[in-house]
Amino acid sequence: MHVPDGFINAPISAAAGVVAAGAVAVSLRGARRELDERTAPLAGLVAAFIFAVQMLNFPVAAGTSGHLLGGALAAILVGPYTGVLCVSVVLLMQGILFADGGLTALGVNITDMAITTTVVGYAVFRGLVKVLPRSRRSITVASFAAALLSVPAAAVIFTLIYAIGGTTDIAIGKVATAMIGVHILIGIGEAVITALTVGAVVAVRPDLVYGARGLQQRLKLRVNGELVDAPGSAPAPVAARTSRRRLWATGLVTSLVLAGFVSFYASANPDGLEKVAHDKGIDKKAEKHASSDSPLAGYGVKDIANARLSGGLAGVIGVGVTVVAGSAVFWTVRRRRSTDVSPTAVENL
């Protein structure tokens, strides 16, 4: 759903840029509360994983494909504020290095793909977790539903943005019907990927999953035949099945394999937005990408003729750059949180 340059006019693109910048600023502050020495490295990995899986377009209908947006996944794994930053880092890398998503439309893409999917996905997830039994299965079920609804929500927001600032005169009803219809189907793929990923991490390290922090059970006492929380008891410790370092290494290797090898077998059909834009005429005023001459434009390495090698190498480079950029951002946020704790505050603890 990467919006190219030229789909949305300059004033609305600029307004979306202001909204995106404000949301990123708020997320930088909010991420200080979400990140700690355990989860900061995971956040950079989540960004790299989202980049890798976004290269895996899957077929959803005749001549149409879809790919992960990742907002719900990131919010559940590392928190909603950090999730916005994760997807924003991915979009920035894709726009600058791979000519995917217009640079003047970066604010639109962050508003649509990072903010909307994260906010809607996490709101749905938290609402379901409150009413479902406290179990790992509930986390997985809530993740599925959250991701499923986040994708058509993003389609709705794009339609609203287009209705206000679209550069072509197309009936908004036709755009809305086409966008929401195809993205409901894409949402099913998003839900499957999100549920499988969250379920896999929860199975080995639930303590590292932001959305599962309330999953740990408190110590119980039997009083008058009823079980109640022990006074002042902390949650029972989680028996980690794998170390953080091993989890991080496994996630990075998985991302590299997906981007460097599996991506070659991804669907070549246009994604939901591209298909709708072509069929409805939204792309009539699309502009050439400012980074179209980038050595990695189009997810291939320039001057390498072998398509498999070119695409695989571009994917590996993308994962590497994203994990480095994301980790740098999140470690900086984490360090800023540490410096915010003054010596006086520490003495008063």
Describe what you observe in this structure:
The chain is mainly alpha-helical and 349 residues long. It has one domain: Arp2/3 complex 21 kDa subunit ARPC3 (Orthogonal Bundle). Helix content is 63%, strand content 4%. The chain contains eleven helices and four strands; from the N terminus they run ααββαααααββαααα. The strands form two sheets. A two-stranded antiparallel sheet has the order 1-2. A two-stranded antiparallel sheet has the order 3-4. Strand 1 and strand 2 form a beta hairpin. 47% of the residues are buried. The C terminus is likely disordered.
- Domain count: 1
Number of helices: 11
Strand order of the largest sheet: 1-2
Structural class: mainly alpha
User: What would you call the shape?
Assistant: globular
> What value does the average pLDDT take?
90
* CATH fold naming: Arp2/3 complex 21 kDa subunit ARPC3
Please give the radius of gyration in angstroms. 21 Å
User: How are helices and strands ordered from N to C?
Assistant: HHEEHHHHHEEHHHH
Low-confidence stretches: 233-239, 342-349
Per DSSP, what share of the residues sits in E-state strands of 2 or more residues? under 5%
Mind summarizing the main beta sheet? Answer: 2 strands, antiparallel
Distance between the termini: 48 Å
Looking at how many chains there are and whether they match, the oligomeric state comes to single chain
Q: CATH top level?
A: Mainly Alpha
Helix content: 55-70%
Task: Count the beta strands.
Answer: 4
Query: Based on the structure given, which CATH architecture is correct?
Result: Orthogonal Bundle
